[in-house]
Amino acid sequence: MKALDVAGLGHVYPDGHRALDGVELAVDAGERVAVLGPNGAGKTTLMLHLAGLLEATEGAVSVGDLRIEKRTLAEVRRRVGIVFQSPDDQLFMPTVADDVGFGPANLGVKGEALRERVAAALADVGLSDLAHRPPHHLSVGQQRRAALAGVLAMRPDIVVCDEPSANLDPAARRDLAGILQRTAPTLLLVTHDLPYALQLCERAVILDAGKVVADAPTAEILADAALLARHRLELPFGFSLEAARSSLRH
Questions:
Q1: 44, pLDDT greater than 90
Q2: Fewer CB within 10 Å: N-end or C-end of the chain?
Q3: Is 51 within the bounds of a domain?
Q4: Per the database record, which ranges form the ABC transporter domain (predicted)?
Q5: What's the helix, strand, coil split of the chain in %, to 5?
Q6: Residue 154 has pLDDT above 70, yes or no
Q7: Other C-beta atoms within 10 Å of 88: how many?
Q8: Between the CA of residue 16 and those of 6, 57, 159, 178, what are the distances in Å?
Q9: Would you state the pLDDT for residue 111?
């Protein structure tokens, strides 16, 4: 069974802007897929559809055996965890532990079971010693890990990360990559950071003007300079794809 199946997905905003136009995307359980594309391509709109935060204009999204519709929203939102680019969109409780426990508590998890979930999620992201710290006292990297812990505490089938490497220093970027590699059951990485996509995802799709215009192994997409240029994507100056691929093999 596929973890995610997006079939003919279209979305038109109230002002008439068509953000998605017949998107087709299937993701197997355990797969790691990068969603690439220029600003305005429809990446965020697609991401919001995956957790039922927007209603499709056309087509459908299924998570496992559940088609996203009103009656399935609660379970879909347990199965699909979104880590937003800004931790301020997720961290709002007095302490880190309170934030991590907020989702499971709303599912009815209580007492020792809730404490165990919170402790396990904090351990997964290396924040056990900061459980009682106010989230706004954390570094950006720690805040992003705390937001991920809140998602992991829901025990999702799919983790969707929106620009997870943005504004992180090299050490925090590396730490987060390691955590995602260990913990995300099935990963969708929405990013402009092409080296991060290569590091974390064996497959990539390019979304542009609301359509999937490429779907291939990440290294193959990054090696196609003409394809990247057509869709306003660029590798960092001095980046060596061959060196990166060699490093990943070792």
A1: yes
A2: C
A3: yes
A4: 1-234
A5: 40, 25, 35
A6: yes
A7: 12
A8: 22, 11, 30, 41
A9: 94
Cα 216 from Cα 199, distance rounded (Å): 15
| Residue 88: predicted pLDDT | 84
Does some domain include residue 105? no
And the tokens for 104? 């499971």
Strands (DSSP E) contained in the chain are 2-12, 18-28, 32-36, 58-63, 66-67, 80-83, 158-162, 187-190, 203-208, 211-217
DSSP of 1-64 = -EEEEEEEEEEE-TTS-EEEEEEEEEEETT-EEEEE--TTSSHHHHHHHHTTSS--SEEEEEET
For residue 208 the two structure tokens come to 């542009």
Share of the chain above pLDDT 70, in %: 97
Look at the chain and report how many structural domains it folds into.
Answer: 1
How many whole angstroms separate alpha carbon 213 and alpha carbon 54? Answer: 22
pTM greater than 0.70 (yes/no): yes
Look up tokens 């690439």; give the residue: 36
Which domain range does residue 198 map to? 2-92+151-249
